[in-house]
Design brief:
289 residues, alpha+beta, Jelly Rolls, Arc Repressor Mutant, subunit A, 2 domains, 6-stranded antiparallel β-sheet, 4-stranded antiparallel β-sheet
Length: 289
């Protein structure tokens, strides 16, 4: 079973998009080609997926996923004697390419990984992909979120190989602090106090493990959240600015334009004109046991 959708020019230029996704359980399944202009995530529900690329053979087992660059020669398949089933999603777009490049820099593709909720994440992509009330803005956000989670895993693997377990623990602590406090005023002292270390030591570790300053990273996270509010809520821009703890509306507008190239007002107008509504419409798909 597969779902096909031709992306619009706007989606190709501005979103993380998919033109094909589905479920495969054909025992004779095989894909063998030199190039296909997409990336793919495959999650193994049962059996074994075999993938050959870069002169390596990968065996992907139940509960595992693999991110593959299809733009170079690849071959993936089932063995008929092993009952197998995968969920998969093709993805493309400027942001997909950028994040995939970062993942590849941290841990060369194809990248195998374990995310406990990956099956649910792909089913949610199915829900956002098809039908009259499909929401391709929400799908774009979901694809980007999945890729960023994979990127963090790849980074952690890379950091573990370079610095040992300290890097992974530090990054996990940072993500917990940010997720709980993104709508609060966060500064260096807040981070340092939360981790029981000096501001200097914290800033040094953050730069070492993230290759960016703490406050620049926080600003990037706030702009990502601002985009979500602008697309999926009708909140006034002044309210969004206040929620995200910007010192003034002009501070928010300038920071947003510096990051995106357009003002919050222009971003919202462009998003709503393309989607028709800030509301999120989801089709329910029953998940097999």
């Amino acid at each position: 079973m597969s779902f096909i959708c031709i992306p619009t020019d706007f989606e190709r230029d501005n979103l993380c998009y998919s033109d094909l996704m589905g479920i495969t359980d054909d025992p004779d399944f095989i894909i063998d080609r030199n190039s296909f202009d997409n990336f793919i995530i495959m999650y193994v529900k049962q059996g074994i997926l075999f993938h050959e690329q870069n002169n390596n053979l990968f065996e992907v087992h139940p509960g595992q996923s693999i991110l593959v660059n299809l733009k170079i020669p690849h071959k993936y398949y089932f063995k008929p004697e092993i009952k197998s089933e995968i969920l998969w999603i093709h993805m493309n777009g400027h942001d997909v390419q950028n994040v995939a490049d970062r993942i590849n820099d941290a841990s060369p593709l194809p990248f195998m990984y374990n995310l406990p909720d990956m099956q649910d994440e792909i089913y949610e992509c199915f829900n956002l992909y098809q039908g009259e009330s499909a929401d391709h803005f929400a799908l774009s956000a979901k694809i980007y979120t999945i890729l960023m989670r994979i990127y963090r895993l790849a980074q952690n693997e890379n950091l573990k190989s370079q610095y040992g377990g300290e890097a992974a623990v530090f990054r996990e602590n940072i993500q917990n602090i940010i997720s709980k406090n993104i709508l609060s005023k966060i500064d260096l002292q807040f981070f340092a106090d939360s981790l029981n270390m000096s501001k200097y030591h914290f800033a040094h570790l953050f730069k070492k493990y993230y290759n960016i300053s703490p406050m620049k990273y926080i600003m990037n996270e706030k702009i990502k959240l601002a985009k979500h509010y602008l697309i999926y809520t009708a909140d006034k821009i002044t309210l969004i600015s206040d929620k995200l703890q910007f010192t003034s509306l002009s501070h928010f507008s300038n920071a947003f334009k510096k990051e995106t190239g357009i003002s919050p007002e222009q971003f919202r107008k462009l998003s709503w004109s393309a989607s028709g509504s800030p509301e999120n419409h989801i089709i329910n798909i029953k998940k097999d046991d």
